[in-house]
Specification:
This is Beta-phosphoglucomutase. Pfam families: Hydrolase. Its cofactor is Mg(2+). Mg(2+) binds at residues 8, 10, 168-169. The termini are close together. This protein has a 6-stranded parallel β-sheet, with helices on both faces. Helices cover 45% and strands 11% of the residues. The chain folds into 2 domains: 4-15 and 88-218, Rossmann fold, CATH 3.40.50.1000; 17-83, Putative phosphatase, domain 2 (DNA polymerase, domain 1), CATH 1.10.150.240. The protein is globular. It has helices spanning 17-31, 37-41, 48-58, 65-83, 95-104, 118-125, 148-156, 171-180, 190-193, 208-214; strands at 4-7, 108-112, 133-135, 164-168, 183-187, 198-200. The protein is built from 10 helices and 6 strands; from the N terminus they run βαααααβαβαβαβαβα. The longest helix has 19 residues, at 65-83. Bound molecules: 6-O-phosphono-beta-D-glucopyranose and magnesium ion. 6-O-phosphono-beta-D-glucopyranose is lined by residues 9-11, 20, 43-48, 51, 76, 113-117, 137, 170.
């Protein structure tokens, strides 16, 4: 039976992908690196340091670890500054409604984000109250597509993976959910999330009614 839900943050609860894009783009422009939305899409769900490595590989460049860490911090400073203008109006359409519905129906809810800025984002949205457990980029060392962040959330909720549905917008996130034995819902295009158990183009379509209809034997 489904007793819990584990949500990714960036791209599921709020659209930070564009803010991440702008921060990486600024760094890339300063460094003379090529960077576009197609490369940015490959960064969905993966950690900050894995992200800068993807950008370097795309540019056939390599740098020492210390320089890499400094540049990643520079990108993060730009990203964090951009979060200041985020407000409780910046949920993706449908996200707040679903979180509210899950609360009223008494489901357990965890956050399973790769971001080290997750708490800041939740504060800006005033969303912390929707979550019983917060798993973020500081909670586990192995990031998606490894299942560790979702296993962390399930364990803290005292649930088995098969009792939880994971919500993700990243290919690596659905890979992680599957690797951990979770049910999965993908938010985004089929080309990216065709391997999710259930997929919606947007959060606005992901109502509890639709989810219960699909996973009907599990409710
Ligand atoms: C994920 C984003 O949620 O967090 C990635 O999808 C990002 O794009 C990752 O790289 C790490 O985020 P942060 O905030 O710790 O740099
Ligand atoms: Mg995401």
């Amino acid at each position: 039976m489904i007793k819990g839900f584990i949500f990714d943050l960036d791209g599921v609860i709020t659209d930070t992908a564009e803010s991440h894009y702008k921060a990486w783009k600024k760094l890339s422009d300063d460094m003379g690196w090529d960077f576009d939305h197609e490369v940015n899409d490959k960064l969905r769900g993966i950690s900050r340091m894995d992200s800068i490595q993807v950008i370097l590989d795309h540019n056939n460049t390599s740098l020492d670890a210390e320089t890499l860490a400094k540049l990643a911090t520079k990108k993060n400073d730009i990203y964090v500054a951009s979060l200041e203008t985020m407000t409780p109006d910046d949920y993706l359409p449908g996200a707040k409604e679903l979180l509210t519905h899950l609360r009223t129906e008494g489901f357990s809810v965890a956050l399973g984000s790769a971001s080290k800025n997750a708490i800041k984002v939740l504060e800006q949205l005033n969303a912390s109250g929707y979550f019983d457990v917060i798993g973020d980029g500081n909670s586990v060392s192995k990031s998606k597509p490894e299942p560790d962040i979702f296993l962390y959330g399930a364990e803290k909720l005292n649930l088995q993976p098969e009792e939880c549905i994971v919500f993700e917008d990243a290919e690596s996130g659905i890979d992680a959910a599957k690797a951990g034995g979770f049910h999965s819902v993908g938010i985004g295009p089929k080309e990216r999330l065709g391997h999710a158990d259930l997929r919606f183009d947007t959060m606005a379509e992901a109502t509890l009614f639709e989810i219960k209809s699909y996973f009907k034997d599990l409710f």
